[in-house]
From TrEMBL:
GO terms for molecular function: carbohydrate binding; galactoside binding. This is Galectin. Keywords: Lectin. Residues 183-214 are annotated as: Disordered. Coiled coil: none annotated. It comes from the Eukaryota. The keyword Aminoacyl-tRNA synthetase does not apply. Pfam families: Gal-bind_lectin. Residues 185-194 have a biased composition (Low complexity). The keyword RNA-binding does not apply. Residues 44-175, 263-397 form the Galectin domain.
Length: 399
């Protein structure tokens, strides 16, 4: 069977996209880099260590604060002094309801471009994708094409990304095309020390993975299934609904409606040992608590009971995460050990693995606790989330 080159990246915020190279790029290599942003204050400047030539892209996901005035996304050249050229100045101005695009070259600003309307809102989440094409930059806001900006400086000279404004960033994903020799250098450097990787913002490990081509499905542009070492997760809130079997794995991406007081998500396939739930969300600045409940469908004495196999309840006012089970109209004994690794006004990732004896729970890719089954997980059929949290994306995986 023909092999397909795939690229995977595991970061300390979770596993990120596994890319299949299409026929037009098999002679080259995709370089994928998640830029470290967690806990950093804006303004911030990030080095794009493979440049930003044609074929490159940036995906920036975040939250815009309610009191925002304006935001700036700048692609810089050199970054050696204050007079660096700016190949792209992308400047949403909320007080004018316009997105200004411009270039700063030879100590002078060019002519502004302001067309396209204003698809951003204060106090909301956004996704901005910048694609570098031969003619210019393509901008996608919340998954929709916004505008195209013609190059005024050759994009291959770009060295840095600069971000500024009242926003909280969740993800910055940088992708570019490089030759295979450079890729081999990048993969060998990924085995170096953690401090070196952190200084260069290179996730570790990162590299090629040869595997038989997966079946063609509607998700191939965003997601690839399980590899030999079990990686499967992708975070892409705008890739649409996913309900697909591939390589023996069933992956379901839920359509989340954050406007509802209670987010109700139903599992399409049987929940059992081997199943996993991944929730990427944001703890609101005024959060006191939120809860995640796994409900069962079962009958007791002929009556339908709404039991809760797992009640996962972060309480910010108590700095504890309560776990419990609701069985036959009665709560069991609470479990509160493990500390409190969550923070208000921050993004988080929660992963729940269902094993034979219980649930293994991870927060931000670190194991948090193990909760023994008190009810059979085979009867779990839905998940509900409520409280002071915003859900970016939620996935369910089973075998």
């Amino acid at each position: 069977m023909e092999k397909v080159k795939l690229l995977w990246s595991r970061t300390n915020s979770g596993d990120y996209p596994i890319h299949e190279l299409d026929d037009g790029k098999l002679k080259d290599c995709v370089y994928l880099q998640q830029l470290k942003i967690t806990g950093q204050q804006l303004p911030v400047t990030k080095y794009l260590n493979k440049g930003f030539n044609v074929g490159s892209s940036l995906l920036i996901n975040g939250y815009i604060h309610p009191d925002v005035d304006k935001l700036s996304f700048n692609l810089l050249i050199n970054n050696d002094d204050e007079d660096d050229d700016v190949a792209l100045h992308f400047n949403p101005r909320f007080y004018e309801n316009e997105v200004v695009r411009n270039t700063y070259k030879n100590e002078d600003w060019g002519e502004e471009e302001r067309s396209g309307g204003f698809p951003l809102s204060a106090g909301s989440y956004f996704s901005l994708k910048i694609n570098c094409e031969k003619k210019g930059f393509e901008f996608f806001i919340n998954g929709k094409l916004f505008e195209v900006y013609d190059h005024r400086i050759k994009p291959k000279k770009i060295t840095h990304l600069e971000l500024e404004g009242a926003m909280a960033l969740d993800l910055i994903l940088y992708k570019t095309i490089i030759d295979e020799d450079d890729m081999n250098k990048s993969t060998s450097s990924s085995s170096s020390s953690d401090s070196e990787n952190e200084d260069n913002n290179i996730p570790a490990p990162i590299g090629f993975h040869d595997a038989p081509p997966p079946p063609t499905t509607n998700i191939m542009s965003s997601i690839w299934g399980e590899t030999n070492d079990g990686k499967f997760l992708i975070y892409d809130p705008y890739c649409g609904d996913i309900n697909e079997f591939f390589h023996g794995i069933y992956l379901q991406q839920f359509k989340v409606k954050n406007d509802d007081d209670t987010i109700k998500l139903k599992f399409d396939k049987k929940f059992s040992p081997g199943s996993s739930i991944i929730i990427n969300g944001y703890s609101k600045s005024d959060a006191e608590r939120f809860e995640l409940n796994l409900f069962t469908k079962e009958k007791i004495n002929g009556d339908k009971m709404k039991n809760i196999a797992l009640h996962f309840n972060p309480r910010f006012t108590e700095y504890e995460i309560v776990r419990n089970t609701y069985d036959n109209d009665d709560w069991g004994e609470e479990e509160r050990s493990g500390g409190f690794p969550l923070t208000v006004d921050r993004n988080y990732s929660i992963k729940i693995d269902c094993e034979d004896k219980g649930f293994r729970i991870f927060i931000d890719s670190k194991e948090f606790t193990f909760y023994n089954h008190r009810l059979s997980p085979d009867n779990i059929n839905k998940m509900e989330i409520e409280g002071e949290t915003f859900i970016h994306s939620a996935f369910y995986k089973t075998v």
